[in-house]
Every structure is written in structure tokens, then in C-alpha cells.
Hints:
The structure is a single chain. This protein is mainly beta. The chain folds into three domains: about 1-170, Jelly Rolls; about 185-330, RlpA-like domain (Barwin-like endoglucanases), CATH 2.40.40; about 335-400, SH3 type barrels (Roll), CATH 2.30.30. Helix content is about 10%, strand content about 35%. The chain is built from three helices and 25 strands. Strands 3, 4, 5, 6, 7, 8, 9, 10 and 11 form a nine-stranded antiparallel β-sheet that branches.
Amino acid sequence: MAPARRCRRARSTVRLAASAVVAVLALVGGLNFPALAQDRITTWSARLAPDWDDTNVRFDADGLRLDSHPGGPASIRSGRPEGMLITAVQPLAELSSQIATELVADQPAGSAVAVDVRGIRGDGSWTEWVAIGSKTLARLGAAVTGVQTRIVLRAGPGGVSPLVRSLRLTAQPGIQLLAARPHGARSYRVFATREGLTGATTANGHVIHERDHFVALPSRRGLAPRGSGDYTVKICASNGRCEWAPVWDVGPWNTTDDYWNPAEDRESWPDVPQGTPEAQTAHDDGYHDGLDQFGRKVLNPAGIDLADGTFWDGLGLRNNSWVTVTYLWTNDGAPAIVQLPILPVYSGPGSQYPAVGLAAQRAKLLVECTTTGGAGPTDRWLRIGPKQYISAAHVLLSSTQAPGTRCATP
Length: 410
């Protein structure tokens, strides 16, 4: 029921916010813009009251602050209290690719407030989250029709909380010159470790249960909101098994290492080769004196953490291992969303074929083509990779995927 409630909230907020287009923008976050047509500017204030999918934050008469949870993201094991609020989608009066902000916040010594934004494209896919500062524009890298905001609060020494009093955002009309998105999702071989930590809370507020299915990546740019698979990876082990799982935590080691992005877009360590995690080169080559961003000695080269169910059941692993990870949101295409807690993946279009992996809850899968098959609740099957098929009965398909491209061969 939770995802449905989120959808209702997003839709109702979009309808209300559509009337909130502001007439004039003189100055936002210290950035001066030329005079612009009034009906082309969308300026809005972020709603700071938490909802069901926010984590460890509360709102009172003064503003947004941390709640009482004592720890940070499970995979990082920092022990530093942290919380997060995600707003509903704000529709834009005109296509935009650049966002400015004006934040009013009290930040005691050692505490921090981070503001990230992401945009929704015309095909319904999301850009990555992009950090935004009071003196800089967030450049989304795509022309978007709506914007969502994420506010992350981190406690200072002794657990002292920052306080966000207000946040105002403006979408600059027009779009920057955008490079064409590369064909095919990015894929890299990285070292995977088992996260475990049953009962702990992930960066997006999910409480980890036994044999859970999700992953952690060392950057918030690809962190999916709780209960969603907006950012999904495909992980394949050397034994031939694969799992499609949502990104629900941040880590291991770092939190600003989007190593799958090219140097010009990478948030940290642009001198490290694309596809190589900072932890890997720190561990293997002594980069950054062998330390992570927190000054800890890197004890393994991990670039992804796997929940227990993904590690044991999806991939059939028994030890930390090298795996091939595909970052599915880096490719174009309308996804199919898994509706079951666990969906088997078969080597052919039917459950009579050998199982070759799993697709986890809410994971967004890229469908290559459709075909007919046997042995299942429907005769319609979807190919999501070479000799990798799922039943169409257990996924939510967009309208652009019905009936979809027919597979030439099984």
C-alpha cells in the first residue's frame, strides 16, 4: 500500500503546485538572472512536513530537524545521526535543465544540510540526484518537466541537529546544450561485499530484514526513495546468476563516489578511471593514502554492498566476490516495475526453463522485447537480457511497452 500512497501524494501535489507559478524572480541564492517572461518561471517553496516515506526527520514551529534515530546509513556504519526528506514532484511551466535554490537554515558546528534535486524526463525516467548550493546551479543534464527535492540533515558532535527554516527553488527557463545519452546502460566489474546488518536502517529509511534484496552504492546520486526502484542495478556473478535490485543504501566506504559516471560528471575523485571505485584504487594502489573520504583505512576494494538475499539467494554467492554491475538508469527506455517481493528469472520464455536469477521488489527492468511462452500465469514473457526472461503477469508495464517489440528469437 505504501507505493500507492506515495503516488496519490505526488499526483495531488502536482495538481496543487501547477497553480503556484511565480511572476518575477529577482535574485535566487545569490544568482542574478536576466529579465524573463513571467509565465516561463517556476519558483516554489519546498514543503518541509515529513510524510510516510521520509526518515528520521520531524517538523515543528521552527522548521525541519532530525528526529531521534541515533545512527546513519547502515552500510557506512558511521554512527552519525542522519535524516532525509523528499518532496513531491513540482511541475514546471517550461522545460528546464537548471535549478537554483535559496536555503535558510541553522547549522551548528559540525552539522550539515545537503540539498539535492532530480528531474523527470518526458518519457517518465529520472535524472540522477544532483547537489545544489546557494551559489551554484544544479545542472540536471536533461530537459525535465518536473523537479523533486531531497533534503539530507546530518548531526554535529553530540548529536546536535541542524534546522531548516525554509527552502525556495527556481527552475531557470530554457535548457543547456545537452549531449546525447549513450546507447546502452553502463556496466562495470567491481568487488561486492555482503552488507548483512539485519534490523539496521538504510539511507532511504528501509529497515533491513532477513534475506533482504537491495544494494548499496557509494553515492547518493543513485539512491532510490524508500519503496521504489527508481535506481536499479543488475548484478551478475561469475556462476551465471544475476539479480535486479533497487539501490536503497549508501556505501560501502564512501558517499560521494559515483564511479559509474565520466570524469566531467563525477562528484568526487575525477582522476580515478571511470568504472573504478575510489575504494578499489585506494586499496590496491594506495590512492588517497589508502583512505576513504572519512579518513578510514580501506580494507577491501568494494564498490557495492549486497543485502543478504541478493548475496545468497539471487547470486548464489558464499564469499565476497567480483561481480559485473549494470546501472540500468543510465540507459534510455521505459521500465517494467516488479510487483512481487521476488520474481524468478528464467533462461527461456517459461517456468519450464532453468532459473538463472531473481528480480527484487520494485526493481525497474529494461525490457528488450516480448514473446509468447508456456508454463506460467500468462503466455506473455519479457526478455530483460540474453537468455533472461520474466513473466509479464508480475510486472507493471508502461503504455509504451504494450504490446512491445516482438523478440526475433527466444
